[in-house]
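INTERNAL AUDIT FORM
Audit reference: QA-55
Scope: verify that the stored structure record matches its stored sequence.
Auditor: D.O.
Record contents follow.
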Amino acid sequence: MKLNKIIKWGMIALILVSVGLLIWGFSVGFESNDGKAVELLLYWTYIMLGLAIVSWVVIGLIVGAKNNPKSLVKIGIAILGVAALCLIAFVLAKGDPAMAYNGPAVSEGQLKLTDTILNLTYIVGAAAILAIVVGEVRMAIASKK
């Protein structure tokens, strides 16, 4: 069986499972007291994100090694850059408890992880805005020449 067929059927299976979980969530009710539907959908989201990241890295490595072995260095640098960005966000995370939070106690590790994700969101959002502005300025300069 060709790789394209495996990927195609794998994507169809993932879509079917996603739609099935969504239909189940609506039938059970997302706002029920136990929260099992929301919890299951969040776990499925984590699984899908993990699959996407692993697929991106693995397929990038395979295609890069096949087409241009020197591109593996670029991929390695990109992976190290993402790891460094995550480390910076983790170091900057304070892990302070939320103000006026009256729910169950949250561990320091969860607070630190939440702050890390928030820091990553801020950093990536700022980088996206900066990339848009710099790209527009470069295009404006290039069109005047």
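Auditor finding: record pair retrieved intact. The helical segments are 3-28, 36-67, 71-92, 108-144.
Action required: none
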